[in-house]
Design a protein that fits this description.
Order of helices and strands: EHHEEH
Number of strands: 3
Helix content: 25-40%
Largest sheet: 3 strands, antiparallel
Strand order of the largest sheet: 1-3-2
Strand content: 5-15%
């Protein structure tokens, strides 16, 4: 299954990405995002129902920024 195209929204409007789109955006596998949702430690997400899950781009950006390091000896905040 291919990831859906990310739609360009008006400025100031945060898009809600499905798991496939969030996977493409972050470079993490869909299964990894699913596991992180269950175990914790992953990016924040919006849950609309039992199966409908979306990620907001600012939350994905924050998740990645928290894990940005300058060298392999620098600890990750995760």
């Amino acid at each position: 299954m291919s990831a859906e195209r990310i739609i360009e929204l008006p400025a100031g409007c945060a898009p809600a990405l499905n798991t496939a789109q969030a996977s493409t955006y972050t470079g993490l596998a869909e299964k990894t995002l699913e596991t992180l949702r269950t175990r914790g430690g992953g990016p924040r997400f919006v849950k609309y129902g039992r199966k409908a899950v979306r990620y907001l781009k600012p939350d994905l950006d924050a998740f990645m920024a928290e894990r940005t390091v300058g060298s392999t000896s620098e600890p990750v905040a995760a």
